[in-house]
Design a protein that fits this description.
The protein is an alpha+beta fold and about 375 residues long. It folds into 2 domains: about 240 residues, P-loop containing nucleotide triphosphate hydrolases (Rossmann fold, 3-Layer(aba) Sandwich); about 110 residues, Nucleic acid-binding proteins (OB fold (Dihydrolipoamide Acetyltransferase, E2P), Beta Barrel). The protein is elongated and about 80 Å long.
Length: about 375
Protein backbone atom coordinates (compact mmCIF):
# COMPACT_ATOMS: atom_id res chain seq x y z
CA UNK A 1 0.00 0.00 0.00
CA UNK A 2 1.24 3.51 -0.83
CA UNK A 3 2.15 6.01 1.86
CA UNK A 4 -0.85 7.54 3.60
CA UNK A 5 -1.57 11.24 3.08
CA UNK A 6 -2.72 11.50 6.71
CA UNK A 7 -2.02 9.20 9.63
CA UNK A 8 -3.17 9.33 13.26
CA UNK A 9 -1.26 7.19 15.76
CA UNK A 10 -2.96 6.81 19.16
CA UNK A 11 -3.91 10.51 19.21
CA UNK A 12 -5.64 11.91 22.32
CA UNK A 13 -7.02 15.33 23.18
CA UNK A 14 -8.52 16.20 26.55
CA UNK A 15 -10.45 19.22 27.74
CA UNK A 16 -10.25 19.05 31.54
CA UNK A 17 -11.78 15.63 32.33
CA UNK A 18 -13.40 15.17 28.88
CA UNK A 19 -11.64 12.89 26.39
CA UNK A 20 -12.65 14.70 23.19
CA UNK A 21 -10.38 12.43 21.12
CA UNK A 22 -9.51 9.15 22.82
CA UNK A 23 -6.46 7.26 21.46
CA UNK A 24 -7.63 7.43 17.85
CA UNK A 25 -5.67 5.75 15.04
CA UNK A 26 -6.54 5.88 11.34
CA UNK A 27 -5.06 6.77 7.96
CA UNK A 28 -6.28 8.34 4.71
CA UNK A 29 -4.96 7.31 1.30
CA UNK A 30 -4.39 9.61 -1.68
CA UNK A 31 -7.53 10.36 -3.72
CA UNK A 32 -9.89 9.27 -0.93
CA UNK A 33 -12.84 11.04 0.68
CA UNK A 34 -12.75 10.00 4.33
CA UNK A 35 -15.70 11.20 6.41
CA UNK A 36 -16.01 11.67 10.16
CA UNK A 37 -19.69 11.10 10.94
CA UNK A 38 -21.29 11.51 14.33
CA UNK A 39 -23.58 13.56 16.56
CA UNK A 40 -22.72 16.95 18.02
CA UNK A 41 -20.02 16.75 20.68
CA UNK A 42 -18.65 13.38 19.58
CA UNK A 43 -15.14 14.66 18.78
CA UNK A 44 -15.21 14.86 14.98
CA UNK A 45 -14.54 18.62 14.72
CA UNK A 46 -11.83 18.39 17.41
CA UNK A 47 -10.17 15.70 15.27
CA UNK A 48 -10.26 18.02 12.27
CA UNK A 49 -8.85 20.92 14.32
CA UNK A 50 -5.99 18.68 15.49
CA UNK A 51 -5.15 17.93 11.85
CA UNK A 52 -5.33 21.62 10.93
CA UNK A 53 -3.09 22.65 13.82
CA UNK A 54 -5.82 24.68 15.50
CA UNK A 55 -5.58 22.38 18.53
CA UNK A 56 -2.57 20.52 19.91
CA UNK A 57 -2.83 16.83 20.86
CA UNK A 58 -2.01 15.70 24.40
CA UNK A 59 -0.58 12.40 23.17
CA UNK A 60 0.11 10.43 20.03
CA UNK A 61 1.42 11.47 16.60
CA UNK A 62 -0.09 13.07 13.49
CA UNK A 63 1.70 12.60 10.16
CA UNK A 64 1.04 14.22 6.77
CA UNK A 65 2.69 12.52 3.79
CA UNK A 66 4.80 10.54 6.23
CA UNK A 67 6.20 13.57 8.07
CA UNK A 68 5.21 14.30 11.68
CA UNK A 69 3.31 17.56 12.14
CA UNK A 70 2.37 16.96 15.79
CA UNK A 71 4.18 14.74 18.29
CA UNK A 72 3.83 16.15 21.83
CA UNK A 73 6.20 13.65 23.43
CA UNK A 74 8.94 14.98 21.16
CA UNK A 75 7.87 18.59 21.59
CA UNK A 76 6.96 18.83 17.89
CA UNK A 77 3.99 20.93 16.75
CA UNK A 78 4.07 22.34 13.21
CA UNK A 79 2.20 25.61 12.58
CA UNK A 80 -1.05 25.40 10.55
CA UNK A 81 0.42 27.24 7.53
CA UNK A 82 3.26 24.69 7.31
CA UNK A 83 1.02 21.62 6.97
CA UNK A 84 0.02 21.74 3.26
CA UNK A 85 -3.67 21.83 4.11
CA UNK A 86 -6.71 23.53 2.62
CA UNK A 87 -9.79 24.11 4.76
CA UNK A 88 -13.41 25.07 4.13
CA UNK A 89 -15.23 26.25 7.26
CA UNK A 90 -18.90 25.82 8.07
CA UNK A 91 -19.37 29.60 7.79
CA UNK A 92 -17.21 29.79 4.56
CA UNK A 93 -15.15 32.68 6.12
CA UNK A 94 -15.47 34.80 2.95
CA UNK A 95 -14.28 38.38 3.45
CA UNK A 96 -17.18 40.67 2.46
CA UNK A 97 -14.97 43.68 1.64
CA UNK A 98 -12.88 41.77 -0.93
CA UNK A 99 -13.64 40.70 -4.47
CA UNK A 100 -13.91 37.03 -5.40
CA UNK A 101 -10.41 37.25 -6.92
CA UNK A 102 -8.85 38.71 -3.77
CA UNK A 103 -10.62 36.20 -1.50
CA UNK A 104 -9.13 33.33 -3.47
CA UNK A 105 -5.74 35.01 -3.90
CA UNK A 106 -5.26 35.57 -0.17
CA UNK A 107 -3.43 32.28 0.63
CA UNK A 108 -1.07 32.91 -2.29
CA UNK A 109 -0.31 36.45 -1.19
CA UNK A 110 0.49 35.18 2.30
CA UNK A 111 2.98 32.79 0.64
CA UNK A 112 4.45 35.74 -1.33
CA UNK A 113 3.76 34.28 -4.77
CA UNK A 114 4.36 36.52 -7.79
CA UNK A 115 1.49 38.40 -9.43
CA UNK A 116 1.71 36.20 -12.52
CA UNK A 117 1.45 32.99 -10.48
CA UNK A 118 -1.43 34.44 -8.45
CA UNK A 119 -3.43 35.40 -11.56
CA UNK A 120 -2.90 32.01 -13.18
CA UNK A 121 -3.75 29.93 -10.12
CA UNK A 122 -6.80 32.02 -9.14
CA UNK A 123 -8.30 31.71 -12.63
CA UNK A 124 -7.54 27.98 -12.68
CA UNK A 125 -9.28 27.60 -9.30
CA UNK A 126 -12.30 29.62 -10.50
CA UNK A 127 -12.56 27.45 -13.61
CA UNK A 128 -12.39 24.27 -11.52
CA UNK A 129 -15.38 25.30 -9.38
CA UNK A 130 -17.45 26.73 -12.23
CA UNK A 131 -17.01 30.43 -11.39
CA UNK A 132 -15.07 31.66 -14.41
CA UNK A 133 -16.00 35.31 -15.02
CA UNK A 134 -16.85 35.99 -11.36
CA UNK A 135 -13.41 37.25 -10.30
CA UNK A 136 -14.32 40.94 -9.95
CA UNK A 137 -17.62 40.46 -8.15
CA UNK A 138 -17.94 41.40 -4.52
CA UNK A 139 -18.38 38.56 -2.07
CA UNK A 140 -21.73 39.97 -0.88
CA UNK A 141 -23.11 39.75 -4.43
CA UNK A 142 -22.91 35.94 -4.41
CA UNK A 143 -25.53 33.36 -3.51
CA UNK A 144 -24.89 30.80 -0.77
CA UNK A 145 -23.88 28.16 -3.29
CA UNK A 146 -21.50 30.57 -5.04
CA UNK A 147 -19.89 31.54 -1.73
CA UNK A 148 -19.40 27.85 -1.06
CA UNK A 149 -17.56 27.52 -4.39
CA UNK A 150 -15.37 30.53 -3.58
CA UNK A 151 -14.41 28.91 -0.26
CA UNK A 152 -13.54 25.69 -2.12
CA UNK A 153 -11.50 27.57 -4.72
CA UNK A 154 -9.56 29.41 -2.00
CA UNK A 155 -8.77 26.08 -0.29
CA UNK A 156 -7.60 24.53 -3.58
CA UNK A 157 -5.63 27.42 -5.02
CA UNK A 158 -2.25 26.37 -3.57
CA UNK A 159 -2.68 22.62 -4.28
CA UNK A 160 -2.90 21.29 -0.69
CA UNK A 161 -1.97 17.71 0.14
CA UNK A 162 -5.22 17.34 2.07
CA UNK A 163 -8.50 19.26 1.94
CA UNK A 164 -10.46 19.62 5.20
CA UNK A 165 -14.21 20.25 4.91
CA UNK A 166 -16.00 21.08 8.18
CA UNK A 167 -19.80 20.73 7.74
CA UNK A 168 -19.50 22.77 4.51
CA UNK A 169 -23.12 22.30 3.36
CA UNK A 170 -24.97 22.88 6.63
CA UNK A 171 -25.91 26.49 5.79
CA UNK A 172 -27.47 25.62 2.41
CA UNK A 173 -31.09 24.69 1.72
CA UNK A 174 -31.96 21.05 1.06
CA UNK A 175 -32.03 21.25 -2.74
CA UNK A 176 -28.73 23.13 -2.96
CA UNK A 177 -27.12 20.69 -0.52
CA UNK A 178 -27.95 17.82 -2.85
CA UNK A 179 -26.51 19.70 -5.82
CA UNK A 180 -23.31 20.61 -3.95
CA UNK A 181 -22.77 16.99 -2.87
CA UNK A 182 -22.62 16.00 -6.51
CA UNK A 183 -20.37 18.94 -7.38
CA UNK A 184 -17.90 18.20 -4.57
CA UNK A 185 -17.71 14.53 -5.59
CA UNK A 186 -17.22 15.45 -9.27
CA UNK A 187 -14.52 17.99 -8.38
CA UNK A 188 -12.75 15.50 -6.14
CA UNK A 189 -12.60 12.93 -8.96
CA UNK A 190 -11.58 15.52 -11.56
CA UNK A 191 -8.67 16.85 -9.48
CA UNK A 192 -7.83 13.61 -7.60
CA UNK A 193 -8.27 15.39 -4.28
CA UNK A 194 -7.74 13.81 -0.88
CA UNK A 195 -10.49 15.01 1.46
CA UNK A 196 -11.32 14.69 5.13
CA UNK A 197 -15.00 15.56 5.48
CA UNK A 198 -16.82 16.26 8.75
CA UNK A 199 -20.61 16.00 9.00
CA UNK A 200 -23.50 14.88 11.20
CA UNK A 201 -25.64 14.28 8.09
CA UNK A 202 -25.92 10.58 7.23
CA UNK A 203 -27.02 11.24 3.63
CA UNK A 204 -23.96 13.41 2.98
CA UNK A 205 -21.65 10.77 4.41
CA UNK A 206 -23.24 7.94 2.44
CA UNK A 207 -23.24 9.74 -0.92
CA UNK A 208 -19.82 11.41 -0.73
CA UNK A 209 -17.52 9.02 1.08
CA UNK A 210 -15.12 6.30 0.08
CA UNK A 211 -14.87 5.40 3.77
CA UNK A 212 -16.74 6.55 6.86
CA UNK A 213 -15.59 6.67 10.47
CA UNK A 214 -18.58 6.71 12.82
CA UNK A 215 -17.49 8.74 15.85
CA UNK A 216 -18.95 8.48 19.34
CA UNK A 217 -17.55 9.76 22.62
CA UNK A 218 -14.16 10.58 21.13
CA UNK A 219 -13.66 7.12 19.63
CA UNK A 220 -14.19 5.54 16.23
CA UNK A 221 -16.94 2.95 16.67
CA UNK A 222 -16.48 1.63 13.11
CA UNK A 223 -14.53 2.49 9.96
CA UNK A 224 -15.61 1.13 6.59
CA UNK A 225 -17.22 1.81 3.25
CA UNK A 226 -20.74 3.26 3.29
CA UNK A 227 -22.12 -0.18 2.46
CA UNK A 228 -20.13 -1.87 5.25
CA UNK A 229 -21.16 0.49 8.04
CA UNK A 230 -24.79 0.50 6.91
CA UNK A 231 -25.28 -3.18 6.12
CA UNK A 232 -23.01 -4.62 8.84
CA UNK A 233 -22.91 -2.16 11.75
CA UNK A 234 -20.29 -3.17 14.30
CA UNK A 235 -22.25 -1.72 17.23
CA UNK A 236 -25.85 -0.84 17.99
CA UNK A 237 -24.89 2.86 18.05
CA UNK A 238 -23.60 2.66 14.47
CA UNK A 239 -26.76 0.93 13.29
CA UNK A 240 -29.06 3.42 15.01
CA UNK A 241 -27.13 6.49 13.88
CA UNK A 242 -27.13 5.47 10.21
CA UNK A 243 -30.86 4.81 10.01
CA UNK A 244 -33.77 2.92 11.46
CA UNK A 245 -33.16 -0.48 12.98
CA UNK A 246 -35.41 -3.37 13.85
CA UNK A 247 -34.31 -5.33 16.91
CA UNK A 248 -35.80 -8.61 18.15
CA UNK A 249 -34.59 -10.92 20.92
CA UNK A 250 -34.26 -14.63 20.33
CA UNK A 251 -32.61 -17.90 21.38
CA UNK A 252 -30.22 -20.04 19.32
CA UNK A 253 -31.43 -23.52 18.38
CA UNK A 254 -28.88 -25.80 16.68
CA UNK A 255 -29.13 -29.13 14.88
CA UNK A 256 -25.84 -30.19 13.28
CA UNK A 257 -24.76 -27.49 10.82
CA UNK A 258 -28.22 -25.91 10.79
CA UNK A 259 -29.19 -23.01 13.00
CA UNK A 260 -32.51 -21.45 13.92
CA UNK A 261 -33.38 -18.53 16.09
CA UNK A 262 -36.51 -18.85 18.16
CA UNK A 263 -38.21 -15.44 18.41
CA UNK A 264 -40.15 -15.73 21.64
CA UNK A 265 -42.41 -12.69 21.17
CA UNK A 266 -43.87 -14.24 18.00
CA UNK A 267 -43.27 -17.93 18.83
CA UNK A 268 -41.62 -18.53 15.42
CA UNK A 269 -38.24 -19.70 14.16
CA UNK A 270 -35.97 -17.89 11.71
CA UNK A 271 -33.48 -19.95 9.69
CA UNK A 272 -29.92 -18.60 9.58
CA UNK A 273 -27.15 -19.86 7.31
CA UNK A 274 -23.44 -19.12 7.04
CA UNK A 275 -20.94 -17.90 9.62
CA UNK A 276 -23.40 -17.24 12.48
CA UNK A 277 -23.93 -21.00 12.78
CA UNK A 278 -20.25 -21.35 13.79
CA UNK A 279 -20.22 -18.40 16.19
CA UNK A 280 -23.08 -19.04 18.62
CA UNK A 281 -23.90 -21.91 20.93
CA UNK A 282 -27.25 -23.69 21.32
CA UNK A 283 -29.42 -21.99 23.92
CA UNK A 284 -27.53 -18.69 23.70
CA UNK A 285 -29.60 -15.49 23.93
CA UNK A 286 -29.09 -13.22 20.95
CA UNK A 287 -30.41 -10.02 19.41
CA UNK A 288 -31.49 -9.96 15.77
CA UNK A 289 -30.89 -6.66 13.99
CA UNK A 290 -31.93 -5.68 10.47
CA UNK A 291 -33.01 -2.67 8.45
CA UNK A 292 -36.74 -2.03 7.87
CA UNK A 293 -36.21 -2.12 4.08
CA UNK A 294 -35.13 -5.77 4.41
CA UNK A 295 -38.61 -6.66 5.66
CA UNK A 296 -41.50 -7.23 3.24
CA UNK A 297 -45.14 -6.84 4.24
CA UNK A 298 -47.41 -9.65 3.02
CA UNK A 299 -51.13 -10.16 3.37
CA UNK A 300 -52.36 -12.44 6.18
CA UNK A 301 -51.98 -16.17 5.67
CA UNK A 302 -50.19 -19.27 6.94
CA UNK A 303 -46.84 -18.34 8.51
CA UNK A 304 -44.00 -19.67 6.37
CA UNK A 305 -40.26 -19.93 7.03
CA UNK A 306 -38.67 -16.61 8.06
CA UNK A 307 -42.02 -14.89 8.49
CA UNK A 308 -43.53 -13.19 11.54
CA UNK A 309 -47.19 -12.48 12.29
CA UNK A 310 -47.87 -8.75 12.78
CA UNK A 311 -50.58 -6.11 12.86
CA UNK A 312 -50.70 -2.68 11.22
CA UNK A 313 -51.02 0.02 13.89
CA UNK A 314 -50.71 3.23 11.87
CA UNK A 315 -50.41 4.22 8.20
CA UNK A 316 -48.52 7.25 6.83
CA UNK A 317 -48.79 8.27 3.16
CA UNK A 318 -45.54 9.88 1.91
CA UNK A 319 -46.37 10.33 -1.76
CA UNK A 320 -43.95 7.82 -3.27
CA UNK A 321 -44.56 5.16 -0.60
CA UNK A 322 -46.44 4.18 2.55
CA UNK A 323 -44.87 3.84 5.97
CA UNK A 324 -46.55 1.36 8.28
CA UNK A 325 -46.09 1.16 12.01
CA UNK A 326 -46.37 -2.56 12.69
CA UNK A 327 -46.48 -4.53 15.93
CA UNK A 328 -45.01 -7.99 16.46
CA UNK A 329 -46.21 -9.10 19.90
CA UNK A 330 -44.90 -6.30 22.16
CA UNK A 331 -42.46 -4.75 19.66
CA UNK A 332 -43.41 -1.85 17.32
CA UNK A 333 -41.37 -0.50 14.40
CA UNK A 334 -41.84 1.21 11.02
CA UNK A 335 -41.65 -0.56 7.66
CA UNK A 336 -41.91 1.19 4.27
CA UNK A 337 -43.79 -0.36 1.35
CA UNK A 338 -44.61 0.50 -2.26
CA UNK A 339 -48.00 1.99 -3.12
CA UNK A 340 -49.20 -1.02 -5.11
CA UNK A 341 -50.43 -2.69 -1.91
CA UNK A 342 -52.26 -0.81 0.81
CA UNK A 343 -53.13 -2.03 4.27
CA UNK A 344 -55.42 -0.27 6.72
CA UNK A 345 -54.73 0.24 10.40
CA UNK A 346 -55.76 -2.84 12.37
CA UNK A 347 -55.03 -5.26 9.50
CA UNK A 348 -53.28 -8.55 10.31
CA UNK A 349 -50.24 -9.14 8.05
CA UNK A 350 -47.11 -11.24 7.74
CA UNK A 351 -43.58 -9.84 7.79
CA UNK A 352 -41.07 -11.68 5.61
CA UNK A 353 -37.45 -11.21 6.74
CA UNK A 354 -34.47 -11.76 4.43
CA UNK A 355 -32.19 -14.05 6.50
CA UNK A 356 -29.14 -12.94 4.50
CA UNK A 357 -29.62 -9.40 5.84
CA UNK A 358 -29.83 -10.34 9.52
CA UNK A 359 -27.12 -9.21 11.90
CA UNK A 360 -26.88 -11.34 15.02
CA UNK A 361 -25.39 -10.01 18.26
CA UNK A 362 -25.08 -11.49 21.73
CA UNK A 363 -27.94 -10.21 23.89
Amino acid sequence: MSQAVLEFREVSKRFNSLNAVDRVSFSIQAGEIFTLLGPSGCGKTTTLRLIAGLEEPDDGEILINGKPVAAPRRGLVLAPDKRQLGMVFQSYAIWPHLTVFENIAFPLRVRRETDGVIRRRVHEALDSVGLAGFSERGATQLSGGQQQRVALARALVYAPALLLLDEPLSNLDAKLREQMRLEIRALQKKLSLTILYVTHDQAEAMTLSDRIAVVNGGRFEQVGTPAEVYEKPATFFVGEFLGRMVSLDGTIIKSGADLWIHVAVADVRLVVRGDPAKTFQAGERVRLICRPEDIEILSAGEIQQNQLPAQIEQVAYLGDRFEYQVRVAGVSFIVAAAKKHRYDAGTAVRLSIDPGRLNIRSA
